[in-house]
Write a structure and sequence with these properties.
Bound molecules: 1-O-pyrophosphono-5-O-phosphono-alpha-D-ribofuranose
Strand content: 25-35%
Number of helices: 8
Radius of gyration: 25 Å
Strand order of the largest sheet: 2-3-4-1-5-12-6
Helix content: 25-40%
Largest sheet: 7 strands, mixed
CATH superfamily of the largest domain: Periplasmic binding protein-like II
CATH topology of the largest domain: D-Maltodextrin-Binding Protein, domain 2
CATH class of the largest domain: Alpha Beta
CATH architecture of the largest domain: 3-Layer(aba) Sandwich
Order of helices and strands: EHEEEHEHEEEHEEHEEHEHEEHE
Shape: flat
Mean pLDDT: 94
Number of domains: 3
Distance between the termini: 29 Å
Low-confidence stretches: none
Length: about 280
């Protein structure tokens, strides 16, 4: 039977969210400890646990069919592969940082300076665009330590919470790019594998669509149903069902959580009672 091979990070910031996404898609993986290849039990999928930096190349060569990877790595390695969809997790910035004592004004500060990074191509493109002549010192990891040990004047690295910069006495001075986890695919997919991928992307889209969406139920006096409905931006129209108590109905709808908080006071003012907010697991679009 044809199986789609998905590459995920062996370890690192994307791994947990990648596996959790597959789980939310209803895919169970037979995973042994330290196993580098695993089969899904209920979906034609094989999971390959690979080094982050190897994934773009393996996708280009068709060793893996699809992969979950940071967008920043796709930019860095510039391989002949396709992005299928952004996945909405592992959001981060690619930034330039300097020791916090530096009185920074603008990017021209980096002229003649040495910058340590694991993303030399991304950095070089930025420097070229800005017309800055700086020296790039490529290192594989622990980039933030470089200025402290005299290896470089500044760094270019991933910043998420900013805590690593802070702990190493650095300040973020320029954001040169943004990134998040994406699903990427090889250009060598057979039609059979593409069909499996279509099924998987359908499930992923349903999971992602349900994020930040809530199912809300509330009791509303019948005369206020129109008013309450107008406060709730809904998919189509709310479901309204009569309650046993004369003159009252139960109103159900789906709403973005953020919008809900914006209208909650108005809902209460319009007589809505017993409001329940329930998570939505999947939303089929
Ligand atoms: C990245 C990056 C920073 C850190 C930033 O490393 O290299 O060290 O995350 O995150 P923060 O802003 O939340 O502190 P990662 O943990 O991905 O591992 P790496 O060293 O292998 O790149």
């Amino acid at each position: 039977m044809t199986k789609l091979k998905i590459a995920v990070q062996k370890k690192g910031r994307l791994l947990d969210d990648s596996l959790s996404l597959l789980k939310q898609c209803g895919i169970s993986i037979n995973n042994g400890k330290d196993q580098l290849k695993a089969e899904a039990r209920n979906f034609p999928l094989e999971v390959l646990y690979l080094r982050n930096s190897d994934i773009p190349r393996y996708l280009e060569q068709g060793v893996a069919d699809i992969g979950v990877i940071g967008e920043n790595l796709l930019v860095e390695y510039d391989r002949n592969i396709e992005t299928v969809m952004p996945l909405g997790f592992s959001k981060c910035r690619i930034s330039l940082a300097l020791p916090k004592e530096v009185d920074y004004t603008d990017a021209s500060y980096f002229n003649g300076k040495k910058i340590a990074t694991s993303y030399p191509n991304t950095l070089q493109k930025y420097l070229d665009k800005k017309g800055i002549d700086a020296q790039i010192h490529e290192i594989a990891g622990s980039v933030e330590i470089a200025p402290n040990i005299g290896l470089a004047d500044g760094i270019c690295d991933i910043v998420s919470t900013g805590s690593t910069l802070f702990k190493n006495g650095l300040q973020e001075v320029e954001i040169i790019g943004k990134s998040q986890a994406v699903l990427a695919k090889s250009k060598l997919l057979s039609p059979e594998k593409q069909a499996i991928l279509d099924k998987l992307t359908f499930r992923i889209e349903s999971v992602l669509a349900a994020k930040n969406i809530k199912y809300v139920l509330m009791n509303v006096p019948n005369e206020n149903i129109a008013k309450v409905s107008s406060l709730l931006p809904v998919l189509r129209s709310p479901t309204v069902m009569p309650l046993a108590t004369e003159g009252w109905s139960s109103l159900h709808t789906v709403i973005k959580e953020k919008q809900f908080w914006e209208v909650i006071d108005q809902l209460k003012a319009a007589g809505a009672e017993g409001i329940l907010v329930v998570p939505v697991e999947k939303m089929i679009l």
